[in-house]
Amino acid sequence: MTDEPVTSETPPDEAAQPEPVDELTAARRERDEYLDALQRLKAEFDNYRKRVARDQQELAARAHERLVRELVPVLDDLERALEAAAGHEEAKLEEGVRLVHRSLAALLSREGLVEVETDGKFDPHSQEALLAQPSEQEEGTVIQVVQKGYRLGDLVLRPARVVVSQGSGE
């Protein structure tokens, strides 16, 4: 045996043992904190998703209600026009139908509905060519509107259906 000095220090193997237990405990605590935070975030996101869906439904219902509320007077005008038609008062019938048309056109205009322009050259983005005919007009010019088209903002709700010139038949 050798005479080695006795020290009060613990050997390195014994000192390393308590540290892994502390690291494991710290790692578990950190994991639990992350899990808790993740569960809270998930619950918040679920609540947010449900709130947004509910808000969208309410918004759609209010928009629908507003549109129907504004269409009711147009329905009243149409009923008056039909009553005039029953009495065979043709002048009043025509006036009633014009009143309904003006009311409906004004309502839709307030909602942003705009008629598609059909003057001039054919535009394939907002017009649909039903037929091409020879005419005195320049080739590709709209010569007749079969059905009006409408836009709502930048969206073409219905393209204008038109007849387009083929140019002169020569």
In short:
The protein has 170 residues and is an alpha+beta fold. Helices cover 56% and strands 19% of the residues.
Write the layout of secondary structure elements.
Blueprint: H1 12-16, H2 18-86, H3 90-110, E1 113-115, E2 127-134, E3 142-147, E4 150-152, E5 155-158, E6 160-167
Parallel strand pairs: 2-6
Antiparallel strand pairs: 1-4, 3-6, 4-5
Oligomer: single chain
Total strand count, please? 6
Spans with pLDDT under 50 lasting ≥5 residues?
none
Average the pLDDT over all residues and give the rounded result. 82
Distance between the termini: 126 Å
Number of domains: 2
Radius of gyration: 39 Å
CATH class of the largest domain: Alpha Beta
Structure description:
The protein is of the alpha+beta class and 170 residues long. The protein has 2 domains: 13-111, Hemagglutinin Ectodomain, Chain B, CATH 3.90.20; 114-170, Nucleotide Exchange Factor Grpe, Chain A, domain 2. The chain is 56% helix and 19% strand. Strands 1-4-5 form a 3-stranded antiparallel beta sheet. Strands 2-6-3 form a 3-stranded mixed beta sheet, with no helix packed on it. Helix 2 packs antiparallel against helix 3 (90-110). The protein is elongated and about 95 Å long.
Notable features of this structure?
3-stranded mixed beta sheet, elongated, 170 residues, Nucleotide Exchange Factor Grpe, Chain A, domain 2, Hemagglutinin Ectodomain, Chain B, 56% helix, 6 strands, alpha+beta, 19% strand, 3-stranded antiparallel beta sheet
